[in-house]
Amino acid sequence: MGRLGQGLRAAGSVAGERMRRVRSYLMAQPPYKRFGLPLLWCIGVPLAVLLVWVLILLPFTPGVADLKQTRAAKASILVSADGKELASFEEGLQERVTLAQISPHMIAALIATEDHRFRDHHGIDVKRTFASVLHTLLGDPQGGSTISQQLARNMFPEEIGRSRNINRKLKEMITAVKIESAYSKDEILESYLNTVPFLYNTFGVEMAARTYFNTSAAKLDILESATLVGMLKGTNYYNPVSNPERSVQRRNVVLSQMRKHGMLDDKRYDSLRKKPLRVSFARQAERNPTDTHFTAYVRKWLIEWADENDYNVERDGLVVHTTLDSAMQEAAEKAVERQGKALQIIADVEWAQPDSGSGSAGGYAGMHGSITPFEYFWRSKGALVNSFIRETPEYKKAIESGDTGAVALKRLRADRPFIARLRAAKTRLETGFVAMDPETGHIKAWVGSRDFHKEQYDHVVQAARQPGSTFKPIVYGAALEKGFAPNRPYRDAVTNIKAGDGTIWRPTDMSGSSGNMISMRDGLVFSKNTITAQVMQDVGLPGIIDLARGLGIRTSKLESVPSLALGTSPVTLLEMVNAYSSIAAQGEYRKPVFVTRITDRSGKVVAEFGNPAPERAMSSQNAADLIDMMRGVINRGTGTAIRYRFGINADVAGKTGTTQNNTDGWFIMMHPKLVAGAWVGFNDNRVTMRSNYWGQGGHNAILVVGDFFKAAIAEGKVDTAALFPDGRRPEPVRQEEDPGDISEEAGDMQQEGVAPPAPPEPDPDDFESEEEIPMEGERADPPAPPSEPEQNPPPAPFEQ
C-alpha cells in the first residue's frame, strides 16, 4: 500500500504540473485565444469522436446494392409443376403504387408534417436535428427524423435496430444519406408511402386507404390524407377506429402544419378542422385464401432454407417450383370434400339415435334433415363429455382463476355457444390424402384436412395414427425377403402367440376361423389376422421393422410387439404412402420430393433439388410378387370397390386398413406411375364411426382414393394402359356390380395374462354434473344402454 500511495501521489504531481503549464500558456495568450482554444477543444474532441464512431458504423449499415434490392422488393411465390401460382410470401397486406397514383393531398400533408424541408436537405435536416436535441434536453422530447431517415427504418428494421439510442440514430442517419445519394426525392417519397405500416397487418398508403376509407390512394381527399399522416406519430394511439377523438385532434395538427407552410389558407383551414371524422373501416382480407396444408408445409421448409442461405422470402422475389400437379390437387380436394361430406352425414345419422340402423349413403342423406347429428352419442356419454370439457383451455382458465372443478364444469356445460363449438369440433369427421410419383418421389397432391381454414392440423404429415391392415403388406414383404413363397400355406385358426414378456396374444377375425389351409397370398387378399400373425411369428419382428424402415417409415416409432403386424404402431399417412411407393418402384425407396428448384426474379436457378438417389429396400422380384399379391386385394378382396364402384380397370394394387372400434379407416393404392392413400377418422380417437360397415377402410377411405383416381384418369393424368412388371390389364368390371362384402377386423392389442386397461378413476364432479346439470337440450333421465351396431349392413354404392 505504501508503494501504491507513493505512485498515486507521483502521478497526481505530474498531472498538476501539466495543468499549470497549460494554464500558464493560456494566460500568456491574447484574450480571444484564451477563451477560444478551450471552446474549440470542447467542440472538436466530441466531433472527432463522432466522426470515428460514424466511420466504424459505416460498414455495418446497408449499402447501395442493398438499397436497390430492397426498393425493388418482391414477394417470393410457390408455383405448381405446371406453372400455376399456389401461394406467395407477401409481408403483410401491401400493394405498391407509383407516386402518380397517390393523392397530392397525401404528399403535401406528409411533407408539411414530417419533413417540411424535405426538398432541400440531403437526408439529414441539421437544423431540425439540433432543435430536437435541445428540446429533448429541456424535457420536451421531439422527433428529428427526416422522411429519408424514417424510410431507412422501414426498409431495414433489423440492420438499424429498434432501441432508442444514439447508435441506432447514427445508423439511421448514415443510411438516409446513402438513400439520398442513390435515389431522387420522388423515388424516396414513393418508397416511403409504399412501406409505412398502418396497423391491421397493412403496409403502404394504398392498403391504408382501402382499410380506413374504402377508397384508393389516388382518391384520398385532404381530410383523409391528414388523418392517415396523423397516424404516423403513433398508429395505435391515433387509430381513427379505436381512438376517434385523438385521431381528430391529430388530424387538425396536420392541417395546421399545412396552413403554416402555405399549403392551406386560413379560411380553408378553419372550415376543414370543424369537419367530423369520416371513417369507413373494412379490414382487408388476408392475401393467402388459397393456402393449403401443402403450401404451409413448404413455407416452413422454405423459411428455414432461406435463413441458411441468406435469402429473404418476403423481398427477394424467389420462385419456388414445387412438384404439385394442379389438376391432381384439384381432383384430390374435390374427392376429400365430396366423400368427406357424405361420410360426415353417415356418422351424424348413425350416432343420432339408439338404433344405428343400416343403409346406403343416399338413404342416410335423405334422413339427415330430420335428425340432430350425434344426439344419441352426447346423451349416452356424459362422463366423456366432462373429459372433453376438462381438456379445453376454457376449463383450465376457470381452474386457474380459482373455480372448483364442479363449478367450472357446471358453468361450461350451461354455456350453449361453448358446448356447440365443443360438439362441432369433436364430431367433425376428418380425412387426409396424399399422392406421389413412385418413380421420382415427387408429391403430386396433398390434402391435410377437409378444410384448411377450419382445421390446420395436417393429417398427412403431423397426425400419427394406427395404420391397421395397411401395414400387413410390409409383413408379407418381409416374408418374401426371407424366401417364403406367396403360396406358402397356413392354417386359418386362432393361434396363441407368446410375446417377449411372456404374455399371450390371440388375434382373431370378424368372419371367424375356418380351420382350412390358406395361402400367404390369400391371407393378405382377405386381410386375415390369423394368417398375418403366424407369418409375423415365422419372419420375426426385427425383419419386419427393418423392411418398414427401408421402405419409408423412418420417423414414427415402431413398437417391437406382436400386434405390430396388424398395424398398431401409429405412423403418418405420408410415411405409409412413401412405403407403398417404394414397393411400386420395384423395391426402391425415394425420399419424398416437394420442391424441384428455386429461381430468382430473373429466372436464374439458385438451387436445385434433383431426384434423390434411390435406395434398395427389397429385391425387385419380391416387390413384383408383393404387388401381384396386392392386386388380389383390388380384384377379389377388401378393395373391390375400386372396380365395381369406380369402374377403374387399370393395373392397380392396394390395401385397406381398419383399426380397433372403427377409429381409423385407411386405403392406399398403387399404380405404376402414381401411388395415393387416404385416412378417415376423427381428431379425437374417442369418437369413432359407429357401424362396422362404414367404419372399415374398405368402405370409407377407399371412396376418397377411388374418387381421386377416377377424376385423374378422366383428366388424362393417369395412363390406364401402364403396367407393373409381369402385369396385365384386368378384364373390365361392370360398375356397381357388387361382388359381396368382405369384412376386415382390426388387430386387438389385448393379450392374455395382461389385465385390460383400468377405466379412469371416477371424478366426483362427473356424478354431480350428470345428475344435477344435464346439458342444454338433454333429458335428465339416465341414457339407454347402447345398442349393438349392425355388423354388415347391405352395401350400397355412393353416388358418383
UniProtKB/TrEMBL annotation:
The keyword Hydrolase applies. Keywords: Carboxypeptidase, Cell membrane, Cell shape, Cell wall biogenesis/degradation, Glycosyltransferase, Hydrolase, Membrane, Multifunctional enzyme, Peptidoglycan synthesis, Protease, Transferase, Transmembrane, Transmembrane helix. It holds the Pfam family Transgly. Signal peptide: none annotated. Residues 83-258 form the Glycosyl transferase family domain. Residues 782-800 have a biased composition (Pro residues). It is found in: Cell membrane. Pathway: Cell wall biogenesis; peptidoglycan biosynthesis. Residues 726-737 have a biased composition (Basic and acidic residues). Residues 723-800 are annotated as: Disordered. The chain crosses the membrane at residues 35-60. Residues 738-747, 762-775 have a biased composition (Acidic residues). Residues 432-668 form the Penicillin-binding protein transpeptidase domain. In the C-terminal section; belongs to the transpeptidase family. In the N-terminal section; belongs to the glycosyltransferase 51 family. This is Penicillin-binding protein.
